[in-house]
Design goal:
The radius of gyration is 17 Å and the shape is globular. The model has no long low-confidence stretch (mean pLDDT about 100). The protein is built from nine helices and ten strands. It has helices spanning about 25-35, 50-55, 60-65, 85-105, 135-145, 165-170, 215-230, 255-275, 290-305; strands at about 5, 40-45, 75, 80-85, 110-115, 155, 175-185, 200-205, 235-240, 280-285. With about 300 residues, the protein is of the alpha/beta class.
């Protein structure tokens, strides 16, 4: 078995203003870091419209198409921008995650990492925000549930910011468990521990500023992993944000690269125990370029280790 890497050059055509943290260089650094690894390299397809419409309404997609500039850039809010290539990039991000689900469930690969942008976990049902246009991880989960007929899919989000979009898109999806660890207080201000979903299917694990790797490991071991075992997912989807790294400029957690390596390894062990090792991971945040590259490489190395 092997690990797949899904990406596409279109994801480099989503342009933001100079100085914006969600920049083209993020993906370039990640791809450079992964260049020497033994991966099944897959060209990410464009998502079908039906893949988007599993969780976003047609009116939302139409609004984004109307907002798409033919040249230059357009602000959707203070943080979220579109350029001429943005919709293709976002369709590739969803297409990568959907294709990764297909490959993992077919047994073509053990697990997969989607190196794409823009990120997705802040996009709500009909609202782009937080650099995100489509709820990539949530759409991948819906694809696994609706297209493949799985009964239980878990999404684990370890980005430093709360995955408010994933929570919104899967709030009333009783077949999905959403677990999010995130700094609090921090933008977007959501993710309280008592937000538990329509069917007790959401678990938020807010972390105080300056939380380090040791405390993170204890919280995952005592809370998140037990919840995953009780849920017994048939597939685990990771929203892999690396902005909890101590070098990241947008937050104040103190994780090190080895903490991301540990967390990935433990999630792979759980996946092996619960769902034949089936994991699909999709890139979210991470805004110090070197820390992002190092942590993403450690993450993918653990996926490869679990697949062999």
């Amino acid at each position: 078995m092997a690990t797949a890497l899904l990406t596409h050059a279109d994801c480099l055509t989503h342009e933001t203003p100079p100085g914006h943290p969600e920049q083209v260089a993020r993906l370039e650094h990640v791809l450079h870091a992964l260049a020497g690894l033994d991966l099944v390299r897959v060209t990410a397809p464009l998502a079908a419209e039906d893949d988007i419409l599993r969780a976003h309404p047609a009116t939302y997609l139409a609004d984004l198409r109307r907002a798409l500039p033919t040249e230059g850039r357009r602000a959707l809010d203070a943080d979220t921008w579109m350029s001429a290539g943005s919709l293709d990039a976002a369709f590739r991000a969803v297409g990568a995650a959907v294709r990764a689900v297909d490959m993992v469930l077919a047994g073509d690969v053990k697990n997969a990492f989607c190196a794409t942008r823009p990120p997705g976990h802040h996009a709500e049902t009909d609202t782009p925000m937080g650099f995100c246009l489509f709820g990539t991880a949530a759409l991948a989960a819906k694809h696994a549930l609706d297209h493949h007929g799985l009964k239980r899919v878990a999404v684990v989000d370890f980005d430093v910011h709360h995955g408010n979009g994933t929570q919104d898109l899967l709030w009333d999806e009783r077949r999905a468990l959403v677990i999010s660890s995130h700094q609090m207080p921090l933008w977007p201000g959501s993710g309280n521990s008592d937000d538990d979903g329509a069917y007790d299917n959401v678990m938020n694990l807010p972390l105080r500023p300056e939380t380090g790797g040791d405390e993170m490991r204890q919280i995952y071991q005592t809370q998140a992993f037990a919840r995953l075992r009780a849920f017994k997912p048939e597939l685990i989807i990771l929203s892999a944000g690396f902005d909890a790294h101590r070098e990241d400029p947008l937050a104040q957690l103190n994780w090190k690269t080895d903490d991301f390596r540990w967390l990935t390894g433990e999630l792979c062990l759980l996946a092996q125990e619960l769902c034949q090792g089936r994991i699909v991971s999709t890139l979210e945040g991470g805004y110090d370029l070197n820390a992002l590259a190092d942590a993403a490489k450690a993450h993918v190395e653990e996926l490869i280790k679990a697949a062999t």
